[in-house]
Amino acid sequence: MAGLSFYLVVGAASPAQAMHIMEGFLPVGWAIFWWVLSLPFFVLGVKSLTQITRENPELKLLLALAGAFSFVLSALKIPSVTGSCSHPTGTGLGAVLFGPSVMAVLGSLVLVFQAVLLAHGGITTLGANAFSMAIVGPWIAYGIYRLCLKQRQQKLGIFLAATLGSLATYIVTSIQLALAFPAATGGVLASFIKFAGIFALTQLPLSISEGLLTVLVWNWLQSY
Amino acid sequence: MSPESELLSFKNVEYTYPCSQHPAVQNLTLKIPKHQRCAVIGRNGCGKTTLFRLANGLYRPQRGIIEWQGKPLNYDRKSLNQLRQKVGLVFQNPEQQLVATTVEEDISYGLCNLGLPESEIAQRVQQTLLDFDLLNLADAPINYLSLGQKKRVSIADVMVLQPQLLLLDEPTAYLDPKQVQNFRQTLEKVYSRGTTILLATHNLDFVEAWADWVFVMDSGEIVLEGTPETVFSQSQQIQELGLGVPLIVTALNAIQDELTLNQLTPLSAEQLQKIRQRIRQL
Amino acid sequence: MSPESELLSFKNVEYTYPCSQHPAVQNLTLKIPKHQRCAVIGRNGCGKTTLFRLANGLYRPQRGIIEWQGKPLNYDRKSLNQLRQKVGLVFQNPEQQLVATTVEEDISYGLCNLGLPESEIAQRVQQTLLDFDLLNLADAPINYLSLGQKKRVSIADVMVLQPQLLLLDEPTAYLDPKQVQNFRQTLEKVYSRGTTILLATHNLDFVEAWADWVFVMDSGEIVLEGTPETVFSQSQQIQELGLGVPLIVTALNAIQDELTLNQLTPLSAEQLQKIRQRIRQL
Amino acid sequence: MHHQIDSLAHTNRLRYLPPEHKLLFGITLFGLSWAASSPLQFLITVWIAIWIVIYARIPASVYLKLQAIPFGFWLTSVPALALGGVWLSDVQLVQTDIFWGVTLGNLFIYISQQGLQQIAVLLTRSLVLTSCMYFILLTVPFVEIVRILNKIGCPSLITELLTLMYRFIFLLTETASELLTAQQARIGYCNWKTGIRSVGIVVSQLLQRTLENYRQISLGLTSRGFTGELKVWYIRRYKPNFRYSAEAICGCFLLFVNIGWHYVTRI
Fold first, then answer.
1. pTM above the 0.95 mark?
2. Angstrom distance (rounded) from CA C7 to CA C70
3. Which residue of B has its CA nearest to D8?
4. Considering CB atoms only, which of C96, C108, C157 is closest to D233?
């Protein structure tokens, strides 16, 4: 496709920053486990969406656009505070705008497209990735946002929702990897510390960048 | 042409998009003469947009050399920033170029990126607003501007950086005749300040009336260049490229034919020139 | 004009957008004659797009009446669906109308909405692919088509429903001369099948050469209508509206003036007509 | 890289094989590869590479770049899997697992044998399973996957959302890349501060375009008689190929026998 700027070059250029568990990384038992765990959330989301779209079919367009929007967002490179570049997850903004149950569906579909168009993530690991990115991340972001809203701290809420939502995604990913690959000594906990350590190096600054970015976007939305 | 009079030159440049099998431009050789009104014509997909993006350093050619005033381009960040100040690029669709919320903010975007002191930014933005007749729109939100106004802002955005070469991609599309006329006045102002202009367009009559020099592109190469008179006199070649001939050329030819057919004296070259002048003034 | 020969008529129609203070069209009265090539010209923002969307039943006028073959429009879902089969609307930007993944699927979309039997869908899609020279693109993904191809698909999308009136908003913008020529052939095919066409454009030369009937819009009203000859002969009024005159009209006037100035006999009306014909054929 | 997979899926040489066949083949391989031993996994990886590069004519350079993605992810996990650390006093507990180690103050850092085994197993498994995935992604266009989902009874809401999202992703990508290019032309990415500001602008502009697109597209659909569902019609133009089917079936059969034998002998 002509006209695609090299700014959108993703994937192969930065394999070290891939944010999803790649295809084939999880042993068969764990892959199935996460699928089974994510499925009820997904099914509930689909049920409530079917209800909503039956009354208002045009909402399908809005949902599809929102999904496409968060896909494009996740393919965008954002300058990280450490100077490197990485990709935002967009879960925070999505959860605040659409609510976490809708995000369970949209997030999963976005993951499908990331696998299909960008080879990020995979099919057997879709369950695990959906659990971290489309379920846990949005729920945490949403919860934090609500909590801050009660304290009348909307801006802070947006920042924390995006930062912690994105961070939660990586922590869950670390847990998933740790469960699949417990260390010989210290077991899951030791393994978790190792994986989380590696992710923290790259993801902590990124999560902060994403928080800042989301606040910028939010400010703009308010002024519009 | 002496090398000093060339602003930007391409030598056998080839560029292929990442996802494509065929090069978008290949064997592209051209010299943009200083302080001229230049136009590129060619079918959609012939590589005009790629040419512009190469000239602005947005793409890096896989083969060949691009030179600015005789020096090959460097692709480190600093040189690119300098190049982009000298070569301003106005995009086809103003919607996709305007980034800020108000006109003033949008014009200041490029200056702020340069990290200039605030007083200078203020002064240059003011001057540009004045030059492009945008003073009363300074605070207007971009979303509520008309297309013609957006186009004007998108040119002001680039001109505030005081480039030596201004590239315009398809600037008259979707403009109504009055807006096209205003656009021409804007362009004349830019030109009179010593800026070289290169624009791509499908509007052959505009090219015929405005340009000093015309490049014809086909499948990523320059296949013909010259003054509008010489280029459009090659009507057969132009037709074969799927470009058509400016209506005015067709019209004058038809008249000559009709006169000859009726055994009347055809118009002299001098008379034709006079008629052409007259039409352009309208 | 007898009422039977009117396809769609507007009587004192007014429409204001929800968030706007000024009506986009007001006091709009026009009759679209059956089986004619009609064109609407006017400056950007004069209400052309609103007119089209009113004609397609997408907007409901706040005042005035719109009639289809003498009967006022109903705005219940069933009548609207019927209206939209009879009045096909092609948007300015094809991206906003194409929704499916492949060309074939996209063309079938409107037919599937009608709930036609599969055999009829198959037959009509095949015929449309053939008519619009899209057979070899049937299975091609929409996303990878060029703009000209997308434009062709968006017309095919609408024509597959066999509308009696085809509305086209700014169909030639961004097309190159060859694509414009192809588009004219497509249009001729549509017209020859008995479809009435109404298009909005800024390309006055296109209007001059193609249209049977021209509407001139300004600030939401029709201010002038007639054959291209009559409309464009009102050059002063047209100029005041900021529209300019087709180049060919200007050219012929300039020639007449030049001939008179040189004390030669000006061309006769008959000769002018011949010249015009000749130019249009090119 | 962006959308390259998709454009190859539309142009590859196996495009006109029935998508069900390709999908079935891919899924069978998924199952077999999971059960296979490491050497066999490597063999399957090579076999799929032949299908992709030679039969489907996907450029080898592109395929290698795609394979670099799982490889890169694997590389980043190597330290986490291989390295272990214990207090010096606990070294005895891990004695059997130590491949090599150093003492750092009170800490003993070592390379774990179990970790090394995991790394080896993980490498062949992730390579073979990604190969299976790539076979499906590179030879079956997305639209055909959606059609199959539709046929096997996936809720229509999901298939409609997938279809619409697919279309809109291209629309918004185009807009985003135009905006980014325009900003670059105006020196919008010369340092971190301007960079984050510029990306912020792109995101908010993109959001605004998304909403604007929503209005226009819903008008566009309404004018074409939108009934609340996205139904379309298409012709099947596929031709099964005997030679390819034969190779796929025989290969899978041999793999099945081999793996089955392996498990039987272990019992």
1. no
2. 8
3. B19
4. C108
